[in-house]
Amino acid sequence: MGKSREQRKEIMLEANILEALDHPYILSYRECYENKMEMLCIVTEYCEKGTLEDEIQRRKGDWYKGIAPQYFDNMEVLTLFTHILLAVKHLHNRKIIHRDLKAENIFVMENGELKVGDFGTSLQLNPTDKQCMTVIGQKQYISPEIFDH
Is 27 helix (H, G, I), strand (E, B) or coil? Predict the structure, then answer.
């Protein structure tokens, strides 16, 4: 079954934002099309290793099976954090706020580079906007001071 008009508008907005972004640490847009079931599909580059959350889970190990955890070393953490920060800086320079930045929305390439993706809740500010007044996201990821208001 096809999406409502509002849902289609949100998907097209996500596709338009993704298409306008060209950065090595942001997921590359390929195309957007409507399939036979009238569903809009956004095609992006393929991320061989899944999400950062998948990588974290893989590295946890399993003591019951005798598999030791494989922790990220300091250089890996700094590199991954830098990739994310550069992507966010690119977004903010274009007045785009991601609003759902979490391990499940950061994708891992075969070479270990990270790519920020999933712009479904992102917001494109007007050039005159000084700040964003809306709050969105899952409560476990919202800062306590925002959540209290």
Answer: coil
Tell me how far apart the terminal alpha carbons of the chain are, to the nearest angstrom: 38
pLDDT per residue as tens digits for the range 95-137: 888 888 999 999 999 999 999 998 777 767 776 555 555 555 5
Say how many C-beta atoms besides its own lie within 10 A of residue 67's C-beta.
Answer: 10
**Spatial contact of 117 and 110, defined as CB atoms under 8 Å apart:** no
Residue 25 near residue 113, CB atoms below 8 Å: yes
Chain mean position to CA 27: 8
21: which residues sit within 8 A by CB, 6+ positions away?
Answer: 29, 90, 91, 94, 96
Catalytic center residues: 100
**Closest by alpha carbon to 42, among 21, 57, 60?**
21
